[in-house]
Specification:
alpha+beta, 17% strand
């Protein structure tokens, strides 16, 4: 094993351990073009070889970003029956797919940032080394490739519903009261992790953060709080002006609404004065196996595996 890998905690020096720790998710849908699948076979082998020479990992990353461009051109030919114009830029190619809703991106800069990364790696100014720290980039490229073979109309529908939920939550001003079965509690952050609308049964993966308190000695020694996260998988949702109602397959309801009662508002304000500034308010991440992960990608990859 290359000694550079020893800086990472828990690396034992065996290939199996290395692959478990550093191999990104390289699942590809069966519809993906054979040339793209072959490229990712080589990418996997490069990562395996980086066990012996760590800088092979960066070669795998470079091949990944170049494969992303190739995958777009191949998919264009599959959809249009002709090659992409050789004079056309990557920016124009991405725009063609964006206009037809082929990307699972919820902000307009996402694919442009991927283009800039591709350009930076393809036309470097100096030698750089990222190693396994850029494994998420490879996974994002795999997500993009798989997404090219999903139904654009379903993507538009789930995007619209997702944005409607987000807009509703924003209108609550991050000051919410949650009712679940026979109990109620305050919530200061909530978001739809992912909406799966591929089958007849809708799945809304919903996350939220109830307010919580900490001992004073903890606050004296820490500047930031990672609050517990709650999860609710709904199959129905009702969006109203003052509340969200989610229902799961067991007919259990989760209701989120804006705080309007003066007593509740005062209680929330007391919590906010002490904990709001140090509570994590942005970034839609969960803690899984001591790693901060965006659940969106967890559910998206499960979605891609569905037929």
């Amino acid at each position: 094993m290359d000694d550079n890998w020893t800086i990472f905690e828990g690396v034992t020096g065996t290939m199996d351990n290395f692959i478990e720790k550093f191999m990104p998710n390289l699942y590809l849908k069966q519809e993906v073009h054979a040339d793209v699948i072959e490229n990712f076979r080589i990418i996997r082998r490069l990562i395996e070889c980086s066990f012996f020479e760590c800088k092979f990992y960066d070669v795998a990353v470079l091949k990944s970003v170049l494969t992303m461009e190739m995958a777009l051109k191949l998919r264009y030919k599959e959809l249009q029956g002709k090659h992409w114009d050789s004079k056309g830029s990557l920016r124009q190619l991405i725009k063609w797919f964006e206009e037809r809703n082929h990307f699972e991106a919820y902000y307009p800069e996402y694919m442009d940032s991927m283009r800039k990364i591709r350009n930076l790696l393809a036309h470097p100014y100096e030698h750089t080394f990222g190693g396994a720290s850029v494994a998420p980039l490879i996974e994002r490229i795999v997500d993009i490739v798989n997404g090219l073979y999903e139904d654009p109309d379903l993507r538009v529908a789930r995007k619209n519903l997702t944005l409607s939920i987000i807009q509703s939550i924003k209108s609550f001003g991050n000051r919410m009261i949650c009712k679940e079965e026979d109990r109620s509690y305050f919530v200061y952050r909530a978001w739809p992790g992912f909406i799966n609308n591929k089958s007849d049964s809708l799945e809304i993966h919903f996350y939220y953060k109830p307010t919580c308190t900490f001992k004073d000695e903890y606050l004296e020694n820490n500047q930031w709080i990672w609050a517990p996260i709650s999860y609710f998988k709904a199959c129905q949702i009702n969006i109203q002006s003052n509340q969200l109602t989610l229902e799961n397959s067991d007919k259990e309801e989760l209701i989120l609404r804006r705080i309007t009662d003066p007593i509740d508002n005062n209680s929330f304000e007391q919590w906010a004065k002490k904990y709001r500034d140090i509570s994590d308010q942005t970034g839609e991440f969960i803690n899984k196996k001591n790693s901060f992960i965006d659940p969106f990608f967890i559910h998206l990859r499960e979605f891609h595996k569905m037929e």
